[in-house]
Amino acid sequence: MKKNILCIGAGYVGGPTMAMIALKCPDRRITVVDINAARIAAWNSSELPIYEPGLDEVVAQCRGRNLFFSTDVEKGIVESDIIFVSVNTPTKTFGRGAGCAADLQYWEQTARQIRRCAKSDKIVVEKSTLPVRTATAMTRILSAERTEVHFEVLSNPEFLAEGTAIEDLRHPDRVLVGGGDTPEGRAAVAELVDIYAAWVPRERILTTNVWSSELSKLTANAFLAQRVSSINAISELCEATGADVDEVSRAIGMDSRIGPKFIKAGVGFGGSCFKKDILNLVYLCETYGLTQAAAYWRGVVAFNDHQQERFVSRILRAMFNTVAGKRVALFGFAFKADTGDTRESPAIAIARMLCEERASVVVTDPKALPAVARDLADCADRVTVEPDPYKAAEGADCIAVTTDWKVFRDLDYDRIYASMRKPAFLFDGRNLLDREALFKTGFNVYSVGRSPLTHLD
Ligand code: UDX
Ligand code: UDX
Question: What is the pLDDT of residues 310-339, one digit of tens each?
Fold first, then answer.
C-alpha cells in the first residue's frame, strides 16, 4: 500500500505541486487541505482559484480520482503518512524583525495541529520557504510532550515559477530533498525521492542535509533577484550614456558563464518570493552579526524600489513634469505575464506613485483586474479598471506597460494612437513592444535602458 499524502495550504505552491504528484503517481491518494473554505470550494469547481497554463487539464484528470480538496485539516492529518506544509510565510509586519523576518505563526500553528491530531508516525515535509534551521524548530514542536508518535522532518523547497508552474513541475531542473543523517532520516528521504522519481530522472534529485536545502532555496531566489537588479542598474547607466540595455544583455548573455536568463531589464521584480526571501536572508545575516553580507543583499531590494521610482520619474520628466489630471493607461497589473497574481507587483507601486501625482489611472490586464480594488484601495478614487486595452487607452495621454503580457504586443497600435490625446507617450517598462514601429506611428517612446524616440524636439 503506497503512503497517503496530505498537503496543508492550497495556494500557488501547494495546489499545482500536488496536482502534478497526483498526475504522475496515480496509485497514491493525495488530499489538499486549507483553512480558507472559499479557496477549497474553488479548487472543487470549474473556476480554479489560481490561473496557471495547463493546470485545469491536470486537475480535471486527477480530481476525484486520487486528488481531493477539503477543509477538514484534522481528518487529513489522521489519514495521511506524508504531510507537505505549504502555508504562507509572509514577511513579519510587527515586532522584532518587522519588514524583514519571516512571520512563522501560521507555520507554527500548523505544526502544533499536526502534533495534536496525529495518531501514527508521519513524515513532515517543509514546502514553504523558511529561514535556515526552521526544521529544528519544527522537530521540537512536533516532538514536545509526545514520544509514541515519530515525526521525521524533511525540507523540500519548491522552485516552480508562476505562469510556468506546470512545465516547471513536469520538467524540474532539480528536486531538492534535505533530511537528517539518521536511519529514520535516510528512510524518509528515500520515501520522498521515490515519489518524485516517478517522473523526474534520478540524477536531477539532489539529497542534502536539511540546512543546506533550506538555505539553497533562499540563495536561488536571492541570486535570481540579484541578476534582475544588476541589469536594472545597468539600464540606468544605459539611459545616461546612450547604450542600449537589451544589446548589452544579449552581449553578456552569450557568455556561457553568465547565460541569457534573468537579465531582462524592466520595472523591477515582483512576486511573493524574491523580496520576502532576500529580506529573510538579510535578517539571517544580521542575526549572525554579518553586517556586510546583510547590506550586500539589502542593496538588491533597494535597487528594485529605485527602479520603480525611476520609471515614474521618467514619465513625469517626459510629460512636462506633471501628470495631474492626465489619463494614464496602465498596461498590466500582474507581477509578470501568464499569472493573475499581483503580490509585490511593480505595477502597484507605480500606480500608487502616479496617483500621488494626481493622475487618473486606468488599469487593464487579462487576468489580474479583480485584485486592483484590494491592492489600490488607498487610492481608489483615482483608479478605474478596463478589461479592453483599446478602451483603456482611449483619450489617454500615455500608456505605461508594466507587465509583459503577449496580448499587449499583438494590439493594433495605429488604432490605439488615433484614439489618444496628443502628444501621445508610451513608456515600455518591459521592453516588450517594437519601439521603432511605435515611433513611426507617432508615439513618443521611452523604453527601459534605451534612448527615447521622440518627436518633441
Ligand atoms: C507559500 C509560501 O508563501 C511560500 O513561502 C512558500 O515557498 C510556498 O507556500 P503560496 O502557495 O504562494 O506560497 O502561498 P499562498 O497562495 O498564500 O497559499 C498558502 C495557503 O495556506 C493559503 O491558501 C492559506 O489559506 C493556507 N493556510 C494558511 C492554511 O491552510 N492554514 C494556515 O494556518 C495558514
Ligand atoms: C520565483 C523563482 O523563479 C522560483 O524558482 C521560485 O520558486 C519563486 O520565485 P516567480 O516569482 O513565480 O518565481 O517568477 P519569476 O519568473 O522568477 O519572476 C520574478 C520577477 O522578476 C517577475 O516580476 C519578473 O517580471 C521579473 N524578471 C524576471 C525580470 O524583471 N527580468 C528577468 O530577466 C526575469
Answer: 999 999 999 999 999 999 999 999 999 999
Distance 251 CA to ligand 2 centre (A): 21
Helix locations, 80-209, DSSP H: 105-117, 134-143, 165-170, 183-196
Q: What's the 381 CA to ligand 1 centre distance in angstroms?
A: 31
CATH (one of 1.10.10.10, 3.30.230.10, 3.40.50.720, 3.40.930.10) for 5-208: 3.40.50.720
Residue 128 Cβ inside 6 Å of ligand 1? The answer reads yes
Mean pLDDT of the region 43-53 = 95
pLDDT tier at 128, thresholds 50, 70, 90? confident
Q: In whole angstroms, give the CA distance from residue 224 to residue 147.
A: 42
- Residue 33: strand, helix, or coil: strand
User: Which residue has its alpha carbon closest to ligand 2 atom 3?
Assistant: 161
Domain ranges of the chain: 5-208, 209-457
Atom of ligand 2 nearest to the CA of 163: 12
Task: Say yes or no: CB of residue 89 within 6 Å of ligand 1.
Answer: yes
| CA angle (106, 107, 108) in 5-degree steps | 90
Class for domain 209-457, per CATH? alpha beta
- What pLDDT score does 92 carry? 83
15 lines ligand 1 (CB under 6 A): no
Query: Hey, which residues are catalytic here?
Result: 273
Ligand number nearest to the C-alpha of 219: 2
Of 136-140, 160-164, 279-283, 376-380, the range with the lowest mean pLDDT is 136-140
- φ, ψ (nearest 5 deg) of residue 8: -100, 115
| Residue the block writes with cell 472559499 | 38
The pLDDT > 70 percentage for the chain reads 100
Give the binding-site residues of ligand 2, using a 6 Å CB cut-off. 158-162, 221, 224, 228, 262-264, 266, 269-271, 273-274, 335-336
* Residue 272 Cβ contacting ligand 1 at under 6 Å: yes
pLDDT at 306: 98
pLDDT at 135: 80
Instruction: Phi first, then psi: give them for residue 362, nearest 5 degrees.
Output: -110, 120
